Structure formats: C-alpha cells, structure tokens
Amino acid sequence: MIITEFISPPIFIAFLIGLSSSLHCVSMCGSIIGTLSFSLKPEVRANKSQMTAFVLSYNFGRIFSYVLAGLIIGFLESIITAPLGEEHSHRYLQILSSLITIGAGFYIAGWFPNFVYIEKTGSRFWKFIEPYGRKLIPVAHLKQAFLFGMVWGWIPCGLVYTALALAATTGNIYTSMFSMLAFGLGTLPAVFGTGMVSSFISRISNLHTAKQIIGMLLVVIAVISL
Questions:
Q1: 165-220 pLDDT, tens per residue?
Q2: DSSP, residue by residue, 179-213
Q3: Residues 106, 8, 30: CA angle, nearest 5 degrees
Q4: What are phi and psi of 169, to 5 degrees?
Q5: What does R_g of the chain's alpha carbons equal in angstroms?
Q6: To bridge 62 with a disulfide, which of 39, 142, 153, 211 should be the other Cys (CB 3.0-4.6 Å)?
Q7: Domain residues of the chain, as ranges?
Q8: Is the distance from CB of 205 to CB of 212 less than 8 angstroms?
Q9: Could you tell me where the DSSP H helices lie in the chain?
Q10: Closest among 76, 142, 127, 113 to 215, alpha carbons compared
C-alpha cells in the first residue's frame, strides 16, 4: 500500500514541481547553501566527506520541514472537507490546486511574474521563525545544520506553496506527506552543493527555453488533472 501511495500521480507531480523549482530557484537556494557552507570551519570545508555530511544535514532538515508541512496541510484538509462532504470538497480543492499549478507553470516559463506575490502569504510566519535560524549561524555541528535546514524549509516560496496546494488534494494525510517528500527530493539536485549536477542545472536554469518547456509541462499536467 505504501508503494502504491508513493507512485501515485500527485506524488509524481510534486516531484516534477520540485525539479521545476530547482531550475527556477537555483540562484537563491544555491546562494543560501553557499553562504552556510562558507561559514563552516576551514578544516571542514577542506574535507570532502565532512562537507558532504553538513550539506546533507542542511537538506534533510529542509525536507523534514516540507514533510511536516504536508502533515499539517493534510490534517487541515481532513477538517475542512468534513462539513462539506468529502467528494465535493475534494473536487473544489483539486480545481484550486490545478489553478495554482497553472499559475506556477506560467511563472516558471516567465509569463506570469505576479505569481511571486503568493509568497507574501507566508511572510508573517517567516518573520517569526527567521530569527531562530540566525541564532544557528555559524553552524558548528551536524545537528545544528539539520536544525538550520528545518528553519530554511519555511522560507516563503510560491512553488513550495504550489506543492502544498497539491498535497491538500490527495485526500490522505500520508499521501500529503509523501507528496511533500517527493517535492523536497526534486529540489535536491540544485541545492545539494557545488558538484557536477548542480553546475549542470545552473547552466540549464539560464536557458529560457528550458524554463518554458518545464512551465508548460506543468500547465498541461494541471489541465489534465482538471
């Protein structure tokens, strides 16, 4: 059953949104991970295995926050849909999620810049939690890196909210969590570090045609889901 849930369409779409956000947000997330890595001790930065462990800890913390957000949104969805009836309320959420995904697709393609304003919905919460992240810098050990990654996971991002909107339509808390896990895994190539894969995605992210293709693919998937 868990395997079936993990390969369900919402989870695949969430993973695709994660890859799309990698192309779009590589500069922002890359600068964050670069700053954090540079704050480590020189002997840690000089040791490739230790450096990899810290970068993994950052990202595991960030993805953990995505999964936690999926748990919260799945729980809220179950409460909200109860009075309206599962079938009708679930359909309304699907329509809303598809519209948001279409907006995200046009945003990635460069045709809907105003989509960025959706990020303002999480600004107040970020102002509350961001000071805790500052207290964790400079990062001295792996636990601290994981905790900072957890804070980083709540930074306002329209594409994260798109993934959450999709997770809210799954009708199952576990699938909602798996969807956000898939989204987080999709973002890994761009923010893992400065290796070959990240360099490749950095080059691809500068190709306007690649962004348009990914964006329109999201739009097509959203329309089909409708």
A1: 889 888 789 989 999 999 999 888 766 654 434 445 555 555 567 677 778 888 88
A2: HHHHHHHHHHHHHS-SSHHHHHHHHHHT-HHHHHH
A3: 50
A4: -95, 0
A5: 18
A6: 153
A7: 2-91+111-206
A8: no
A9: 2-6, 9-38, 42-46, 48-84, 86-109, 123-135, 142-152, 158-167, 173-191, 196-205, 208-225
A10: 113
Phi, psi angle pair for 164, to nearest 5°:
-65, -40
**Cβ-count burial of 8 within 10 angstroms (0-12 exposed, 13-18 middle, 19+ buried)?**
middle
- Of 169, 158, 153, 156, nearest to 69 by C-alpha is 153
Q: Please enumerate in sequence order all residues whose Cβ is within 8 A of that of 66, keeping only pairs 6 or more positions apart, or say none.
A: 153, 160, 163, 180, 181, 183, 184
Distance CA 127, CA 80 (A): 27
Q: Give the span between the Cα atoms of 226 and 221, in whole angstroms.
A: 9
pLDDT digits (tens, 9 = 90+) for 132-174: 888 888 888 899 999 999 998 998 888 888 899 889 888 789 9
Do 185 and 12 contact (CB within 8 A), yes or no?
no
Dihedral angle computed from the Cα positions of residues 39, 152, 211 and 200, in that order, rounded to the nearest 10 degrees: 30
Query: Could you identify the residue written with the tokens 């059953």?
Result: 1
Say how many C-beta atoms besides its own lie within 10 A of residue 74's C-beta: 23
Amino acid at 199: S
The closest alpha carbon to 51, from 66, 40, 60, belongs to: 40
